[in-house]
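User: Hello, can you help with two protein structures?

Assistant: Certainly.
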Amino acid sequence: MYKSMIALVAAATMLTACNSNETEENSKEVTEKSEQPVQTADEQEAQNEPAQNETTPSADHEKWSSLPEYGQIIKQIGNEDYNFNKETDNDNKRVLLIDLKGEKQYKTIFVKNTNRLKIVKINGGGEIFNEVIK
């Protein structure tokens, strides 16, 4: 009898503890969402419309030239008027899509902790570069 009571109390305690963690996580999500700044309709329209003075390709290259992999990318694909678009940038890796005249040409994957750069030609070329850069 005592064993079953102990088991019942232990199970109830575990369920209660699990439920309280979920409640804390949910309240954190609600708090984070509510802390985001509210935008007016004019600000939202401005973000949705393309900018009148979009960055020129040379300004775009200046923006990306501070990346450690930029020099090797240009060395491999050439210095044309490519547009760089960030797909992913987190603690582990950075993925860029590179397009020319609106068509995706290359995908680059830079693994930050090993400095490995992979460049893939999207339209049938396959992997063109896969080395650790310095």
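That covers the first. Now for the second protein you mentioned:
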Amino acid sequence: MKHRDIVLEGREAPQRTARVELADMLSTDGSRADDAMVVASELIANAIRHAGGAVLMRIEVYEFGSALGVVDRAPDTRALPASPSNSSTEFADLATNGRGLFLVHTLASTWTVEQITDGKIVIAVLTGAGSR
């Protein structure tokens, strides 16, 4: 297992920082590296928009895939839907929010949110190609 914590708090471009670190960590796992980049960007964007910013990103790379966790300081875990969706079929009625978590839900094998001491961590797991 490879593990890395990346401090995002105070960074001018936290998503770029995360993508650079992910590229380094996942350089040998091209099968899901692009998906991991999208998932990390969406989780960080969500933390910026709804929780005052991302504090830290945790990357864990295993033989079977990777786990990405984004920590923010907002403690409310109920703000994240268990299964995000947009069931509208009319373009004018499409939700303007929630697409990021829909992407995470679609690309990750599983994801969860856990309350921690000073906020919460949203964790997305991406398993190897074809095992979603």
